[in-house]
Every structure is written in C-alpha cells, then in structure tokens.
Write a structure and sequence with these properties.
By secondary structure, the protein is mainly alpha-helical. It is 49% helix and 7% strand. A hairpin with a 2-residue loop joins β5 and β6.
Length: 280
C-alpha cells in the first residue's frame, strides 16, 4: 500500500538506524537485535496505526478513534500526546531533550512515521515482490526469482498485524497482506518448478496448498504440473478430491498435452494459465 500521494514510505532518520519493525505477525520492534518495549496496548496501537499509514499523516482524531473507539475519554488528546512522547523515547533514546523527533514527526493536525523501507518487514516484503515480478530486461532469472520469493515468504511470523487484525483500522490491510502471502506461496512453488526442482517435496507442497484452499484454482494448475514433473502424469488432488472447474481442464489436459510437447522438448505444458510460472 502506498501513501496517499502515490509515493512509497518516506526515508527514516539516521537516528532510526538499527530499528526493525515487524507487523507480519505480532507487532515487534527491535534495535540491533534487542527487543524494545512500546508499552501497553494503547501506545502499541498508536504505533501500529502509524506504521500501517506508511509515512502518511494520521490525524489525532483518527489515532484517538483507533485507540478508544467512538467514546474516547475527555483526556484522550493529552493521553495521546503522552503515548507519542513515550514511543519517541523508546525509539530514539539518544535524542536530546527538546530535539525534534525524526521517527514520529508532527505534521499539521497529526503524526507520521519516518522509517526506511527495509526497516519494516511488510514494506520489505512488498519490495521483494516487486523485484521478483519485474518483466523485460529487468526480469530476474528463475533462480533469482526463487531467492526473492523465498526471502519474502520467510519474513512472515504469523498473521499480518496479529492482535489488531480484527480492528476496523487494520482489517483491510491485514487481509490484503494475507492474500499477498498466499500468492507468494503459489508463485514460489511455480518458480521452484520452473527451476527444475522435480521432487516429491514440491509435489507434497502442491498437495498441501490444494488441501488448504481447494477453491484457489491456481493451486490445482500447480498440482497438475507437479504431478507431471514427479511422475509424468496428472492426478486428482489430495484424498481424490476433484479440482475446481477451470483448473479441472488443466488436470485433465496435462496427460494429453505432455505427449504432444515431450517430442518438441518444451519445458512445460503450454496451456497452463498465464502467469503460473511468470515469464517463460
């Protein structure tokens, strides 16, 4: 998700060096490997909302609504300022008293966070996806695509914004990131198949993906290809389950098409849905 002005997250200050923020799982913040305590649920909520905004200004009213809901106490404005002050002290312990914060900045009627793209796992995750998805001269090799997707997937420690995912302000973004994670799992399997990892492990992974979400048709296509690579045939899914309608055509046709393409030395059946293996 980009900022409202169409740009990515704004660069962080030098004082943020060593910070690492995790939202692909429970909220975590570390500096040089040491876990930082942000305090209780309310300051943690303030911080999570600012991270979710990716450098865009979040008004005080929006922060108060995220922390207290529709009935904030009379002291909400002062309490919010206290939470921000605490977060600044934790995030920038070397900042001189009275000096302007470089991580959580005040802008207009709200606050914004300033961190580098590599300092937040969700931002790093999407940057890696962008690199893996390059087309044309900038397209990565098959092996490099596997590396990029594997690195992106490894950033996940649990559901995005775990502990906040049911909150109105986090629900949409958590769901969006979760869907990207599932797409990465599929694309990583496809990339590994393209690299020639024709192993039972890939077939097992394909079967697991189908069993986990049988309505995702892309997974049936990958399962058919994995069966072909492992055994030279396409079978039904886990437990004999039949594929979803569109993917059923892939499973049914693999055995027929393979006989046609084997003589031509083609690497994969040409009828697989576009994008299953990225650039050919």
């Amino acid at each position: 998700m980009e900022r409202a002005d169409g740009e990515g997250p704004r660069p962080g200050p030098r004082g943020a060096a060593g910070l690492r923020v995790g939202v692909l799982g429970a909220l975590s913040v570390t500096r040089d490997g040491r876990v930082l305590s942000l305090g209780g649920p309310r300051p943690r909520t303030v911080f999570a909302v600012l991270v979710l905004a990716r450098g865009a200004v979040v008004t005080g009213d929006r922060l108060i609504d995220a922390v207290w809901g529709e009935e904030p106490p009379p002291s909400a404005v002062g309490a919010l300022q206290a939470y921000v002050s605490r977060l600044r002290r934790v995030l920038e312990p070397a900042r001189a008293a009275g000096a302007r914060s470089g991580v959580i900045v005040r802008e207009g009627a709200g606050y914004a966070i300033r961190l580098d793209p590599d300092e937040v796992d969700a931002w790093r995750f999407e940057a890696l996806l962008g690199q893996a998805g390059h087309r044309g001269p900038a397209a990565p090799s098959a092996a490099e695509r596997v590396r990029l997707l594997a690195e992106a997937f490894a950033l996940w420690r649990g559901p995005a914004f775990a502990g906040f995912a049911d909150e109105p302000w986090a629900r949409t973004e958590a769901a969006r990131l979760g869907e990207l994670r599932e797409l990465v799992r599929e694309q990583l399997l496809a990339a590994r198949l393209k690299c020639g990892e024709h192993t039972e492990a890939l077939l097992s992974e394909a079967e697991h993906l189908v069993a986990e979400a049988p309505l995702r048709e892309e997974r049936w296509s990958l399962l058919a290809l994995a069966h072909y690579r492992a055994h030279g045939r396409a079978d039904a899914g886990p437990g004999g389950r039949q594929p979803a309608p569109r993917a059923a055509e892939c499973v049914e046709g693999v055995g027929l098409a393979v006989r046609a393409v084997e003589g031509e030395g083609e690497e994969t059946p040409a009828f697989l849905p576009e994008g299953v293996l990225g650039d050919q």
